[in-house]
Design brief:
Strands 3-2-1-4-7-9-8 form a 7-stranded mixed β-sheet, sandwiched between helices. Helix content is about 25%, strand content about 25%. The protein folds into 2 domains: about 190 residues, Vaccinia Virus protein VP39 (Rossmann fold), CATH 3.40.50.150; about 140 residues, Adenine-n6-DNA-methyltransferase TaqI, Chain A, domain 2 (Alpha-Beta Complex), CATH 3.90.220. Helix 6 runs parallel beside helix 7. It is elongated, with a radius of gyration of 23 Å. By secondary structure, the protein is α/β, with parallel strands linked by helices.
């Protein structure tokens, strides 16, 4: 089988530790591979019933040899007919306390697929198709712990599916793992916990975004993306009018002394503003407040969130830093990680920060 990268032990145990349910009776993994996630589940909940599924007959055969697994099915989890033909999967509908998933998510051109579940039929990435389909097997209040590519949390391809899932569940980003986590595969991953709400049968329209309540009022900002390449700041636009800020000037949550200036600046930024990097390092040190008197010209690697007051700017910065796992997971890309404007707007909305038009 292609696209088989089995879950490392440290990642498996991190995923299982993310579960918050105390009394667990039934645990399932619908892309079980060799059962690494289930082994971690057995270690934590030794008396629970374990169910496994995998599309690969060789994996299913390996899983059946494990005495700790109650039942094993072998079907294509993303194919509705294949799922309906499995007596084991039928018995698990709305029955699982915990679903663990490390779904296959690589593929040529990151092709989308169609997810068919009780919640609806929707086009999305392969990874999120597994997540949406697995919700049919969770009981009310059950939890789904998934190992996903960070792009699932920000890509436009998954936007409608993400909104649909958020209408049925709360979502918490647990931890981000580096590209070196999986042997033989260079892919960043993030562990995410979904908790199925008790009223999840009331589906919100897929084009509606659900923002979690975080116990504070909504903040409003103006988003300005820098547009000046560094080489132009050094050559074609060099001058004395406006301080030029690149990502290297954002250090330790502060804007360091600028030694580059430009004469021509579009999309100039006024204080108070919160500056973050659009490309590169995703660390809280790269989230800074600017309170200077002069307007700034930004490089194309920096984004500013202009605020109406210092108080609002401080709250925006603290809200971003307090939710930095979610912020970092919104960056994507196989080389230098980056965040799209669309992805940033969605991220801010999820934190009750609204971008003014």
């Amino acid at each position: 089988m292609k696209d088989q990268f089995f879950t490392p032990k440290n990642l498996a145990f991190a995923a299982v530790r993310a579960a918050k349910i105390r009394k667990v009776q039934i645990v399932a993994d619908f892309a079980a591979g060799h059962g690494d996630l289930l082994a971690a589940a057995i270690d934590r909940w030794p008396s629970c019933q374990i169910f496994a599924n995998d599309i690969d007959p060789l994996c299913a055969r390996t899983l059946r040899k494990l005495k700790s697994i109650h039942s094993v099915s072998c079907c294509d989890f993303l194919d509705e007919r294949s799922r309906k033909a499995s007596k084991i999967l039928k018995s698990l509908l709305n029955a699982c306390d915990i679903v663990l998933l490390n779904p296959p998510f690589s593929g040529r051109g990151s092709a989308a697929c169609i997810a068919e579940s009780r919640a609806g039929r929707i086009r999305c990435s392969r990874a999120f198709a597994f997540v949406l389909t697995a919700f049919d097997y969770l009981k009310m209040g059950g939890e789904l712990i998934a190992i996903l590519p960070p792009s699932c949390l920000s890509s436009s391809k998954d936007a409608r599916c993400r909104d649909l899932i958020m209408s049925m569940a709360s979502m918490t980003v647990i931890k981000r793992f580096s590209k070196s986590t999986f042997m033989g595969c260079s892919a960043s991953t993030v562990v995410v916990r979904f908790k199925k709400s008790d009223n999840s049968t009331a589906i919100t329209p897929p084009n509606m975004t659900i923002s979690p309540k975080i116990g504070s009022r909504t903040l409003t900002v103006r988003l300005i993306r820098g547009c000046i390449p560094v080489h132009r700041a050094l050559n074609g636009l060099a001058g004395t009018k406006f301080p030029f800020v690149h990502s290297t000037e954002i250090v330790g949550q502060k804007i360091t002394c600028c030694d580059r200036y430009v004469d021509l600046g579009s999309r100039l930024v006024s204080s108070p503003s919160v500056l973050i990097t659009r490309v590169g390092s995703q660390k809280t040190a790269k989230c800074a407040i600017y309170l200077g008197r002069r307007k700034l010209a930004l490089s194309d690697c920096v984004i500013a969130l202009e605020c109406d007051s210092i108080e609002v700017a401080d709250k925006v910065r603290r809200r971003l830093c307090d939710n930095w796992e979610t912020v970092a997971a919104s960056y994507e890309g196989t080389c230098a990680p980056y965040i799209t404007i669309e992805g940033l707007v969605r991220l801010l909305r999820s934190l009750d920060i609204i971008v003014a038009s």
